[in-house]
Predict the structure of Putative heavy-metal chelation domain-containing protein.
Amino acid sequence: MIVLEKSQNLLQGSYSFTMTDNPAPLKQCDKILITATTMTNDSLTGLMPQCVDASFVGIMGPTAGCLPDSLFDLGIQAVGYSRIEIPELFLQRFKKGLKWGETTRKVWALTR
């Protein structure tokens, strides 16, 4: 397992897996899961050239809840996100910093 990380604090730790800030080792991976944070920190398109040989590339996280077509066009095959099911209760919990619980449901959008 290879974890690509931007945080210098986390990179200084000791782990039972490879953690790096260099995306080049992703070329060795057959299956790649990418956090949706890459959509907000503008690093997703820079990672995709490292993923071209993988048999599966997915992106997941609460911020991935968008129309997936542009992600599919990049070569991503699955998009996992949280769908808000109970908006009023979700907003109450979100404002208080509480867990979302039953107010959301995990959803995967897959390419055809």
Notes: The beta strands are 2-4, 18-20, 31-35, 56-60, 78-84, 104-110.
